[in-house]
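As agreed, record minuted below.
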Amino acid sequence: MAHDHHETEHRHGHGHRHGHGHGTDIDWNELGPLLESQAELFTPVYERAMAWLGQEVTEPGLIVDAGSGPGVVSCLFAEAFPGARVVAVDATAPLLERARDRAARQGVADRFDTLAGELPEVLDELEYPADLLWASRSLHHLGDQRAALAAFAERLTPGGTLALLEGGLPSRFLPRDIGIGRPGLQARLDALEEEWFARMRADLPGSVAETEDWPALLTAAGLKHTRTRTFLLDLPAPTPDRARAYVAAHLSRLREGIGEELDADDRATLDRLLDPSDPASVHVRPDVFVLGAYTVHTAVRRG
C-alpha cells in the first residue's frame, strides 16, 4: 500500500510502499519498478530541493543518500553536483543494482558507489565523512529516530549538512466530490493510512515514540543552523499518462493494504476508480491531477 505523505515515495520515491493486508512489512525489492517510476515523476521536487541545498552546500566532495532505493535521487545528486562522489546506501541489494545500472546509463558511474546494509550502522563503513547526507523518508523506518539522527550527524564532516525529507502534506489526486460515492474519499483514506503508519512505527525493532519536531531533533543531535523548506509537486489536470499511472498504482496499493478497513460504499467507490473499463476510473476520467507538498529539514555539523 502506498503511504505517500509518510514515505519514501521515498524511500525516494518510495512513497511509503507498504506491505500487504494489515501487516506492515514492506517488500522494497518487489517495488523497484514502481519506486523508479514514482521518483522520476517527482524529479521536479528533488531538483528544486537540490537547488535550495546548493545555496548552503556549495562544493560537496561526498554526498550520501541514506535509504536510496533504486537510486533515482542519488543520480540526480550526481548531476546537480558534478564535483561530488555519491554513495547510495540501502539495505536491499537488488535496488542498489538498479542504482548502479542507472548511474551507468546516465554517465556518472565513475563517481557513484553503493553501500548495502542496515541504517544507521552501515554508515560506519563509509571511507570518509559526508559533506551532505540526504535521508528521504528513510528515518521513519528506524525504530529509534533520535539515535539514528545522532548516528547520521556523526558521519558528517565539520560544516557538513544533514538533510531530511520528512512530513509534508498528503497528496491529492481527485476533487473532493468525484461524482460517485460519498465525497471526501481521500481524506478517509488518509486517516486509515495514519493508523497504518502508527502500526508500522510501533512494530519496528526498538521503536521509540518521538515528537516529530524535526528541527528540534536535529538540534538535539548536536547540529546547528536548522532550515526548513517545502516543495510542491503540481501536475494539474489533464495529467500526463505517467502521472495517471502513478495515481492508479498508488490507489491500487491502498486497496490492497487498507481496503478492507473501508466501509462497503467507499470500497465500492475505490474499486470503480481502479476499474479500467469504468468511465469513472482514474484511468480515463479527465479530472485526475497530482498535488503534493514535500518538506525538507536541514542542519549543519559544528565546525
